[in-house]
Design brief:
The complex is a heterodimer. By secondary structure, chain A is an alpha/beta fold. Chain A is built from 13 helices and 13 strands. In chain A, a hairpin with a 2-residue loop joins strand 1 and strand 2. In chain A, helix 3 crosses helix 4, helix 4 crosses helix 5 and helix 11 runs antiparallel to helix 13. Chain B is mainly α. Chain B has one domain. Chain B has 13 helices and no strands. Chain B starts with 12 loop residues before the first helix and ends with a helix. The chains are: A alpha/beta, B mainly alpha. Chains A and B meet through helix 2, helix 3, helix 4 and helix 6 of A and helix 1, helix 2, helix 6 and helix 7 of B. The structure holds adenosine-5'-diphosphate (ADP) and magnesium ion (MG). The site of adenosine-5'-diphosphate has 11 residues of chain A, from strand 2 and helix 1.
Amino acid sequence: MIEVQGLTKRYGEKLAVSELSFTVRPGIVTGFLGPNGSGKSTTMRMIVGLDQPSEGSVLINGQRYRDVRAPLCEVGALLEARSVHTGRSAYNHLLALAQTHGIPRRRVGDVIELVGLAGVARKRAGGFSLGMGQRLGIAAALLGDPGTLILDEPVNGLDPEGIRWIRTLLQDLAAQGRTVLVSSHLMSEMALTAEHLVVIGQGRLIADMSVADFVAGASENVVHVRSPRAAQLRDLLLSADVTIRADGADVLEVSGLPSDRIGAIAAAAGIALSELTPRQASLEEAFMALTHDAVEYHGGSASALPHQPGDGSAQTAGGARLETHGAGARS
Amino acid sequence: MTTVTDVGPARGELTAQAGYGVTQRRVLHSEWTKLRSLRSTLFSLLAAIVFVVALGILISWAQASHWDQESPIDRLTFDPTNTSLSGVFLAQLAIGVLGVLMFSGEYGTGMIRATITAVPHRLPVLWAKSIVFAVVTFVLMTVSSFVAFVGGQAMLSSKHIDTTLGHPGVLTAVFGGGLYLTVVALLGVALGALVRSTAGGIATLFGVLLILPLIVNFLPSSWSHNIDPYLPSSAGQAVFTVVRESSSLGPWTGLLLFCGYAAVLLAAAAVVLRRRDA
Ligand SMILES: Nc1ncnc2c1ncn2[C@@H]1O[C@H](COP(=O)(O)OP(=O)(O)O)[C@@H](O)[C@H]1O
Ligand SMILES: [Mg+2]
């Protein structure tokens, strides 16, 4: 169990994390989601005592990380940045970490086996590929058989096989009753791995809910309509709370109206429909909508000027990045 | 397909049974493993040994072969012990750089994050690195100093200008070669933790040990005579000098002051290591 309470981190003027509170429960994978620069890595560094919070605290099973007698046996962390001396072999790297706790050599061999690095354990870690580096980082995290695991963007840059390996691993670890917190800036990745979500934007909590609720409730649904008389239908459907996006000459994307109402209106006007499909917003769209709302909510002028480089305020930067993401997700 | 069926005994059992946890002794063990598992460290230590032994013997040989052309004053102030230990001046480069790398190497590669998550109190890491590297340096460099002394005196004996360990101050000086380098090692460790970058740490260390004395020498001589003996380099080098200038500190006073500088830097490193984000 990880309890984050009122966590705030300032780097000089820059507010990286702001009054963040959430709890990570054991037995499930909790996704820690937020766009780039939203403060995920900073929060994770504070959880394991690398960075000192400006305010607030983190408790791991009721204790501060610094006060834990055997930290590696309590929390295993895979940080975003590599944390291995390039000149040392994987085996000696893990051995040196194990020795700080009196963990026997046997366990070093076991975790090397577990992550599939047995063949290269005696090679310099500096020569490892990204995927091998991640596996070594995970071996270090598992070294003390910890009940809590924290992984910062573990699948970044991995090939599909590596991604699948990590996904399975995390789910297995959670199934054994461990607390697993894994960060990502991709909603689609979280949907496949996590059961619960903690979403942040600009260092603030946006949502703390199950993945299922998130997907169901985050965004209204869209109806995909195809008709030879699309332009005519569009005029009939339009009203104050309905938005319609034309997609090609005969396609409409309608939100704000259920599909049966659209069908009825078309029938009444004698317009033939060749397609009428209710479509749930994609996960990425739901995520965008949620984080974008938060941006608007918190940052008055920022939403009005989302692309202005301006004074470099956090809101503007975050907003602009979200917009870019949105374009990518829809195309 | 890889699945994790067994990541170890059920959670918590492992810890409870075995009494796992961080202790200073265990961190020492870990730092010893780190030191011996880097090839670059082993090469640098080998270089330091070769510098002390080979250079000491070579310079002693050169002194002996040119003895007949030396001026009377030079002959009067000739220090056979210090001459045979002149390799220490070169070895301090290798030892100092290695000392700085103890921390800067970890900051540079990111290893420091793994180290500090394992030992969140941090200070045991500073003490362990200091102790492990100081002990290794002391053992290797004291032995090297004795070998250099014996070899160097053998060269000097051809002109009967050699000395023996029985002469006053000589035994102290030969031990002093190892002691001086040990304190250089500690200065390096402290600077590495303070400055965090290899280049910055090395520049600071050798700025103080090599450049500062040069600058002080440019001062009016009444000033430089008063300042120079208290510089870290002069104070430290007093311990392996037998024939000394009147103004210079005695061997133990000098070494004590040199240790004082190292202690201040280590204390500063402790404060900074504890406070700063990693
Ligand atoms: N050491 C630091 N010094 C100054 N600013 C930092 C530092 N670390 C992170 N930041 C800033 O804090 C914000 C959050 O960063 P980060 O935690 O890395 O976000 P994420 O992991 O969600 O991408 C960013 O704007 C980043 O530039
Ligand atoms: Mg990050």
